[in-house]
Amino acid sequence: MSQPAADRRVPVMVLTGFLGAGKTTLLNRLLRDPSMSRTAVLINEFGEIGVDHHLVSKVDDSLVVLDSGCICCSVQGDLLRALKDVFQRGVRREIDPVERVLIETTGLADPAPIIHTLMQDFFVSARFRCDGVITAVDATHAPAQLDRHREAVRQVAMADRLLLTKCDLVDAAERTAVIDRLRTLNPGAPLIEVFDGVVGPEAIEACGIYDPGSKLPDVEVWLGEEAARARAQRTPAVTGPAAWRRPGAAPAATQSVRHDADVRSFVLSFDEPLDWLGFSEGLSLLLQVYGERLLRVKGLLNVSGDPLPRIVQCVQHVGYPPASLPAWPESGPYADRRSRLVFIVRDLPQEEVANILGSLCGQLPVTQA
Ligand SMILES: Nc1nc2c(ncn2[C@@H]2O[C@H](COP(=O)(O)OP(=O)(O)OP(=O)(O)O)[C@@H](O)[C@H]2O)c(=O)[nH]1
């Protein structure tokens, strides 16, 4: 019997997971491995002032930021354009031929429209194959996130592989409880426990061609819904010129039509270098009082007396140890070295956040919706 011809299409992996689950951390770790050097990375940012791509150590032409909205709502046209461009630039030898594509979605993305987009476009599906959805699940926050956010449930249910992150922050009993919960949502996906963000390429390899039949029946329904939605709309997802950009170009305004109306993002920026002590106190107070409604906080700060940009990261009531970037970005919104914090909140007015932070930092932030 003749063997089927090898599938030479470039595998595309979708790295998803709820806000702050550890996607960028995993991506960084993976890209450090020499075997991952021919990987094109597409990062989708939620919020006007994207931070993630500054936190990814890969800086070359095969890193693309999709920032004109959320990838599952409004950026599907950008995604196709970016993939076509990656392919064509490889053919023209402007970049090394790409062996795989990794798409990091926003924490609120629904994987269904992304997979649908990849499978339905003629040019893209002839050259790229969806090799699977890898979902990062935060062991510390998963129970509450799965209770409250349907996006988190969909991301788990659609996974081909589950990466249970932050296992170093929970005990064995908590870990087992989360794993049991994940197994009820997605019994089939292999699960890898991640400690301190450490993973190797094997964590994402060979997820297999995306096959909705191997998931719970709902997944098929979701993909079916996407197909129906696409048929009903039959309008390009994005109008105007190609809206994806490389890091450094000006960001576009964001929009979100798919997510809960009470989830929103805003940016607070500070003109003057910040007093670290006052800022830390303000942030701790915010986390204590509003942790549940602060889905995600991240940003780069200009701290008095420190020449390097300090990275601040929080997920709900947890603030992670601050780190520094090796240098300030030379282009893009952060090149002006002002401190900026991106907030993704549920039901929390930005004035309240600005007032608390401002009163303890000694300077009122400028707010941007
Ligand atoms: N202790 C510990 N911290 C982790 C681990 N993975 C991620 N973190 C921390 O969790 C915070 C959020 O991680 P990110 O990688 O930025 O999460 P993300 O999913 O990319 O976040 P969004 O893009 O905003 O959704 C950072 O401060 C990380 O250092 C882990 O396995 N262990």
TrEMBL record:
Keyword hit for Membrane = no
**Catalysed reaction per UniProt?**
GTP + H2O = GDP + phosphate + H(+)
One Pfam family it belongs to: CobW_C
For this UniProt record, the keywords arranged alphabetically read as follows:
Chaperone, Hydrolase, Nucleotide-binding
UniProt cross-references to SUPFAM superfamilies, sorted A to Z: Hypothetical protein YjiA, C-terminal domain, P-loop containing nucleoside triphosphate hydrolases
A single GO CC term for this protein reads:
cytoplasm
Give one GO term, molecular function aspect: hydrolase activity
- Domain CobW C-terminal spans what residues? 263-361
Xref: InterPro entries: CobW-likC_sf, CobW-like_C, CobW/HypB/UreG_nucleotide-bd, P-loop_NTPase, Zinc-reg_GTPase_activator
Name the job this protein performs: Zinc chaperone that directly transfers zinc cofactor to target proteins, thereby activating them. Zinc is transferred from the CXCC motif in the GTPase domain to the zinc binding site in target proteins in a process requiring GTP hydrolysis.
Q: Which family does it belong to?
A: Belongs to the SIMIBI class G3E GTPase family. ZNG1 subfamily.
The protein's name is: GTP-binding protein
